[in-house]
Amino acid sequence: MGCVRKVTEDLYWVGVNDKRLHLFENIHPIPRGVSYNSYLLMDEKTVLFDTVDWSGCREFLKNIEEVLNGADLDYLVVNHMEPDHASSMEEVLIRYPNCKVISNEKAFMFMHQFGFVVEGRKEIVKEGDTKCFGKHTVTFVAAPMVHWPEAMVTFDTTNGVLFSADAFGSFGSLDGKLFNDEVDFDRDWIDDARRYFTNIVGKYGPFVQLLLKKAATVPIQMFCPLHGPVWRTDLGYFIDKHDKWSRYEPEEKGVLIVYASMYGNTEAAAQQLASRLCEKGMTNVSVYDVSKTHVSYLVAEAFKYSHIVLASVTYNLNIYPLMYDFLHHLKILNFQKRTFGLIENGTWAIKSGSLMKKFINEELKECKVLGSQVSVNSSAGESNAPEFETLADALIESMK
Q: Domain check: are 109 and 195 in the same one?
């Protein structure tokens, strides 16, 4: 018996959930798991849109068999060749020898690189091509670098469904709740969606903007992504989030404080600043220990907030290594358009503040460092009180 859900009159979700995987792409923690979404269209021609990760292949094949109910599979559309979506492709093709594979030229090149045998079964499409399966006609739209160069999306012009590949996705296992209106997305899902986008797709914001512009020209009624819930209501909410994230614009006015502390003194300084901000009415403040928080969470929070304060001890005359790692991740993800405040600490030769400022000014685009810096000698004392006050005021003033 399979585990499937009906998406529209002719369309079925035949994907799988994975709650055993600890690290997505073997780097990002996924405590709530992840879904690998695949969709099967039952028309005059049967069409499977993408496959799933190898770990879920057995269940996936059962789902396909249940929906087909004895029918043959005519087509497999590959929107995205990444192995978490394509690694079950050959098993599908073995079981359905008449199935043709529809994808673009670069995707077929990648299939060859991964060792997938599709010769004699290829149907190459390009931007703007259409294909009729009976009642349903689809058009193929290139989505390069969202987030691989071969990525495309497929739009069903009959019912307004956009098979959006890795766009509009999220971490998190579905656990039976397929649609966005079956969950409290703002409470239970937005953090995973933000962390998914910023860490997986975030570097390629300009390419996401191009895809959003293309999407605005067609009457989309539903997003069917390869991870996370299917969107059938309030599409504007999710589009707005992706628009902000891909333009590197903050979602909220607030302050993210990230600290690197060896013995608790820099942590105390970070908490001191947080208290001053809240006393002054800026209560949208989040504080994280860079040594205890996986960098993917820090990146996601950085995309969320308008202002970031980095509080770092000096370590071997340098920035604390895990703080430097956080900054490096921001750089490689093309992070930009934020205001930074700095707190430095050290017992001798305090360097972290000047080095963090140098990194931000030279490596991050369109970022500003406030002149009001807190400099702590081993532990904060009364002499630092005016500095905390000044930095808190400067952060709040810069939000106006």
A: yes
